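pasting for the record
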Amino acid sequence: MNFFGLGQTADIQITLNDAETRRKVDVKREDGTKEKHYLFFDGETVAGKIQINLKQPGKKLEHHGIKVEFIGLIELFYDRGNHHEFMSLVKELAPPGEMMRSQTFDFEFPNAEKQHETYSGINVRLRYLVRVTIIRRLSDVVKELDLAVHTLASYPEVNNSIKMEVGIEDCLHIEFEYNKSKYHLKDTIVGKIYFLLVRIKIKHMELAIIKRESTGSGQNMYHESENVTKYEIMDGAPVRGESIPIRLFLAGFELTPTMRNVQSKFSVRYYLNLVLVDEEDRRYFKQQEITLWRKGTVASRKEREQDATKKL
């Protein structure tokens, strides 16, 4: 029996089979600090060992079963009581009974689907984890190991350039052009700005990348925007016919792929925000959405399946 915390209990350790060779990446915690998680991709097997050590040798541990789960879940910080599990794989390690000594169990989730990328934002977090549970009558013993997941994409088949105009009647008319609308996370944004009509005194111009996180739906929709980066692309007054080049390297910033309506819970979108400031500090801006994607150093699951089909 286990009253008021007395009696037998156990420590659980989860070790991945390829822990020594598997790459780790930084994942932001809710408090803003970072920790290292093992990195997985869609379709990779998750396997390892579970060590259950009894704290009091020679004393039995009664339980109602031991299980291991591979779980994908979304946590909305304003709705902490309700975690949305979008995937759950379960394997039984031991039926109800008694443990008389410490034991080690093997586990494997072959070719596990990982549809979404892990994400930690302002109001939402998407996690993948291995969870081991010793089911007990009063309180379960639980251990979790968080994993990082990156989703890979191929070069877009269609990637049109962006051409737009900004104008204030009889005062200002500019055109701006970006070389494409979809960028991988290590890409470079290249563009030009043309001044066709300038009758106001522009002091400077800046370009910003804005990340917009949307959570919830309907009346319970929350939007949070943050500047990923902002830099000045022109200082001083332009003249008619002048052309300003743009070159912005994305590799140095903390970016994620664009995420649209993930499990109907949240979205993450990115925008280029062009801002002109005149001598009276009035601001004129134009915003354009861009799509970000992760270019893989390994083949994506879709590409691996296509290669396998070709070989057949």
